[in-house]
Amino acid sequence: MVSRWLGFGLLLLSQAPAVTASGSDIGTTEDIFGLDDGLDGAMFKRQAPNPATLYPPYTLSVPIDHFHNDSLYEPHSNGFFNLRYWFDDRFYKKGGPIIVLGAGETSGQGRLPFLQKGIVAILAEATGGMGVILEHRYYGASYVTPDLSTENLRFLTTDQAMADTAYFAKNIVFPGYEDVDLTAPTTPWIAYGGSYAGAFVAILRKLYPDLFWGAISSSGVTAAVTDFWEYYEAARLYSPEGCAPATQKVTHVVDNILQGGDRDDIQQLKNVFGLGNVTLDVNFASTIRGGIAGLQSVNWDPAISSPAFALYCSNMTATEVIYPATEALDSSVKEVLSLGGYDDELATTFKNYIGYVNLTRVSSCRGRPQDSCFGGRTNYDADDLTQTWRLWPYQVCTQWGYFQTGSGVPSTQLPLISRLIDLEWSATTCREAFNMFGMPDTDAINKHGGFNFSYPRVAIIDGEADPWRQATPHKIGLDWPESTTSEPRMIIGGGAVHHWDENGIFKNETTADLPPHPVREAQDFIVEFVKEWLKEWKEEHGCGGARRRRAARGEAA
């Protein structure tokens, strides 16, 4: 399939500013990428005032262990912990719904812009509802246990977190609303989530249908996948013209040499990148792979969109050498290309690739041993509450998978990252940090539907160019049902990436192009079907509905 980049995505890339060297951690270890890496901090760039000053955090005491009959959580706990939340009642009208956004695998504070001006604010204003951000257990300040040891992480499962959300919906009394019953099912609750949280709210609605009237799953990864080589399919299919093929070719050169096994040739390859002191070949391969993964951090709002992907692709498609210092490597580059099975026609691209890696990776390690920068994590045993790096990897290792490999790519297709990056290497954290040697129990998630997830009043929304689309019901290559009011479906066009419908801008920031038409269309679509869902709720829960329910139970009117 010809590489393409559609609509607004191309505009973003053309307008993106230059990037200076950074100390990014991408590629420094056996990476387990978070689903939402790179966006949370950026969400605050444009805020005036900062939403953290507008919305104070509150907590609700919630059971640590909801499942005392499940041996997975032995030894069981009778304790409670404080689950953090925020709410906004500026649009609330009597009888309005609760719009709750699941914060997912990050601090809930990072989701506050969605309460201030994003999808929660949009839905609350349209429905007279109250907006809520609910933090996920263990993340942010919703501490469950005194440390993050493997034993104490046993309560970090999606099932326990969904039970928290159900408990919250049944028991919450919002400050200032002590005289109003806003709990479920007395009040309609609509759940929204993006990415992991998108899958979370979809399954939540299915498991707790009496509490959650509807759910909106945006970029929701309802399919847990162990070998998630297809993460890079979006970049292969939707990158700017020429970017993916160029990446495939330079990766092919690298793999031909690394897999060839000649130590002198391998050393020559590492040297030309300035990474001659990286001991393990797979660590070297990981260090140079980061650029193509930047697609996930492209957003329609320039204030929060990362320019890294634009820089990378502009490097890989340039027809002239961008980094003058790499000209001194001309003969070495041509030798490496020959060793890798390519001729001199790739020399300019390869030099620019070397320059990009030097700018974004090598320069950040000058003055330090390269293995200390690129040789993998060394503090696996640290497990105090500041070691938040343990949280999402634990979920990955136990149930969700998503190891983004190059080895899993079919042999008929050139990968975008090295085939040395395989399941065994990707799961190093599982072994070293958690003493887990098997593969994740993805059946625990996929039993709810996986790629075929479907349930009444669960909306499935995805971006056409989202790397995580390949773990959703809108996976490229699958057939899916047409959209209905009961089960709305939409693929956001215009080069949309990761849950682009979730964030918003203030009305005085709106222009003819911001938000772009595909995003406006998606947000309008969401408002439309949520209003229809709420009409259904009123019909079922109004006076007539109450009489019908009593009659069904054989009770007097």
Automatic annotation (TrEMBL):
Signal sequence interval, chain numbering: 1-21
* Residues that span the membrane, as ranges: none
Q: What taxonomic lineage is listed for the species of origin? A: Eukaryota, Fungi, Dikarya, Ascomycota, Pezizomycotina
Taxonomically, which superkingdom?
A: Eukaryota
Query: Any idea which UniProt keywords this protein has?
Result: Glycoprotein, Hydrolase, Protease, Signal
Q: What is this protein called?
A: Thymus-specific serine protease
Q: Which PANTHER family match?
A: PROTEASE S28 PRO-X CARBOXYPEPTIDASE-RELATED (PTHR11010), SERINE PROTEASE 16 (PTHR11010:SF117)
* InterPro entries tied to this protein: AB_hydrolase_fold (IPR029058), Peptidase_S28 (IPR008758)
Gene Ontology molecular function, alphabetical = dipeptidyl-peptidase activity; serine-type exopeptidase activity
UniProt GO BP: proteolysis
Q: Which family does it belong to?
A: Belongs to the peptidase S28 family.
